[in-house]
Amino acid sequence: MKDSGKISSFLKTGEVYFPPEDIVKNLRINEEVYEEGKRIEEFWGKISEELVWFRKWDRVLEWNPPYSKWFVNGKLNASYNCLDRHLDARGNKTALIWEGEPGDRVTYTYGELYREVCRFSNVLKDLGIKKGDRITLYLPMIPQLPVAMLACARIGAIHSVVFAGFSPRALRERINDAESRILITADGGFRRGRIIPLKENADEALEDAPSIEHVIVVERTGKRWNRYERDLTWDEVIEKQDTECEAEIMDSEDELFILYTSGTTGKPKGVVHRTGGYMVGVHITAKWIFDLRDDDIYWCTADIGWITGHSYIVYGPLSNGATVVMYEGAPDHPARDRFWEIIERYGVTVFYTAPTAIRSFMKWGDEWVKKHDLSILRILGTVGEPINPRAWEWYHRVVGGERCPIMDTWWQTETGMILISPLPFTPLKPGSATKPFPGIEADVLDEDGNPCKPGEGGYLVIKTPWPAMLKTLFRDDERYIKTYWERFPGVYLTGDAAKKDEDGYFWILGRSDDVINVSGHRIGTMEVESALVSHPAVAEAAVVGKAHEIKGQAIVSFIILKEGFDPDENLKELLKAHVRAEIGGIAVPDEIYFVSSLPKTRSGKIMRRILRAIESGKEIGDTSTLEDEKSVKEILGKK
Ligand code: 7RM
After folding, report:
1. Residues 492, 528 within the same domain
2. Is this prediction's pTM over 0.90?
3. Domain match, 198 and 338 both
4. Residue 512: CB within 6 Å of ligand 1?
5. 98 within some domain
6. Residue with the nearest Cα to atom 18 of ligand 1?
7. Atom 4 in ligand 1: which residue has the minimum CA distance?
8. Residue 592, exposed/middle/buried by CB under 10 A (0-12, 13-18, 19+)?
9. Residue 325: strand pairing partners
10. CATH code: domain of residue 452
11. pLDDT category, 264, cuts 50, 70, 90?
12. Beta-bridge mates of residue 498
């Protein structure tokens, strides 16, 4: 890989990576933002001025825990802020660069995207859709997905995007909970060379979804599909529409979207985000964390079906007027360098992906990356799970050429925006999401609600409200209170375990229920996994606790080996010795299983809950978010 030579490398001192002076001095912000963030209302009020308001708010925040009102009586429109406001200065600038998995490509300027969104807004209006109505989107990663979202936002309809990998049953549950009037889907989408039969799935879901009046179908694949009376095609309804549609004047507190997220038990939670606070939050985090500038080509590889896609493919980058890359398919299709090819082809400067992807890239080997010139990259990001230090170092060195800061961004569907993350000037420690964003107050509490000492693991909480915080759970205030606000009154419970170090850096240890207790020692599954992954033979590892008569819990690990390593007893002993050396005897796995895949959510997070259930012989529970049954069958087979 060619080095640009323009930017110098990070300086490594001990475990800390210091960003080079030429990055730091070119930034538009510095340490002072943390000071400013301490006066919450003033801080967010000033930032809100970066958006276009039809009417300025009267008050930044009204906080009646656990309910907040942000930018009280302010009026704005999210679609207007992503499109109309850019038309004068950036009408001909590329807004969206889209690439389909088969290799088809389309780009939209801001002007073109604006007109397309207006046309589709008019479609929705013609169908009688009004402010506050819900619309479910079940689409592959094609341009019609952001177009439909922005069209909903434009007329005040509330979108509920359901990830295209979900089953008919999961789709039905989400449509019915939201009581959506319209479903927008496609005949199919491409994934690893195969077609996902979205229309068939949708038809099955709609066998029992009485609120749906119409289905709008994007014809993506050219294959035949069954057409029912309720079905319309995207092209036929959009064709004659006008390219202007006035943006609805929305109250800051008006709902922008619902996004369902699965809990450990029970039906999925409909996380509700509102217009003003959400837009302010995603706008400024996208701008500061990724240092977004007019000439950046920005690519977030998430699917828009997840919050990461909502906030950091659609609303955040577009409100900043950025050029956004969007890719439909798999990273290894047709070959394992598809991502690097895309970065090189479009000159991607900011790249945001997930640890699960990074671990796959590592496993596939450096050669795939090195085939391409990635020297134009300047900032990297990661999100979704804790990133093992070894994967961090690989990402930094092989993808980032040792010159790109890595923004390890911690946040949730519920938080709407990134809450814990470095800024590009922050000294980095591999595996740590570093510090709360300015204006955010996070802490780690013990069982009694007292702050933990440095190095001590506990409950990660957010102590003050933030603009993009969820408004509530759709039609379920009670569950909203129970899930997030009851454990420590007035404090938002994230459900994650974390620790803070002496420098105030946060280390996310995983979900709270993943923590293991061996002979009274709290051990983060993440710590053991990171130790295992730091061994050259290990590609991925998942660790869970299992009841043990003497120790309380024993450590069980599931390991995917890198290509070329033999899964034998000898290697098990070597791995145990390795963990002993890395962490200590207390963390050595009692059992090691070599597997070919791990149970993961459809967004790539390891589902330790399932491994735990298997280990303890309990019911596996809700598996609607499980990507593939294959791993579960394999593991059950080993028992
Ligand atoms: C953005 C997203 C949220 C959960 C969260 C964590 C985990 C996300 C990080 C992370 C460690 C990170 N939303 N998580 N980012 N853990 N470091 N940088 O993923 O609602 O789908 O998931 O994901 O456990 O609570 S989400």
Report:
1. no
2. yes
3. yes
4. no
5. yes
6. 410
7. 412
8. buried
9. 97, 299
10. 3.40.50.12780
11. low
12. 458, 508
